[in-house]
Amino acid sequence: MELKKITLRYEEYASLADLSPADRDLINHAIQASEKTYSPYSSFRVGATVRLSCGNIVTGNNQENAAYPSGLCAERVALFYAQSQFPESAVESIAIYASTDDFKMEKPVTPCGACRQVMAEYEFRHQCKARIIMANDNGQVQIVNGIENLLPLAFYLEELKKGSFKKPTEYNRRNITDEI
Fold it and tell me: What is the pTM (predicted TM-score) of this model?
């Protein structure tokens, strides 16, 4: 047996005012998107904004359904739209903002597992790490550079063993080091 260690890195900010103007702008778009959610069941409003390498900005928000699995998270709404409209553009950044009137959020919202896997797919597809900016209505912000900091053991295309797809590069190798 060999013991391994996974190291995750993130930045944490106490206020939106501490962010760069570009990151603040992305969060503000996510806040606006969160105000348009369809969330009558959870009252949990999530907005997401994607900045693409072509310069376009795309927003999405959570869409609920009485049959719960039929709804969709804000992140995937934004990512699927961005990639359907701009398939050759890499995701440079995605900002995620959440708020609710039902309870006080102590920490910024993080993407669910399905959204993390979709982010991993687009990073792999374009061979480009995305900056993931997460915020809540308290003004707190957490930022990671690359999905491996939220999903360190992601399922990638290489696991499918399809010979017709390109092999991964060093970009998406997992950040696993020997235990010290």
Answer: 0.86
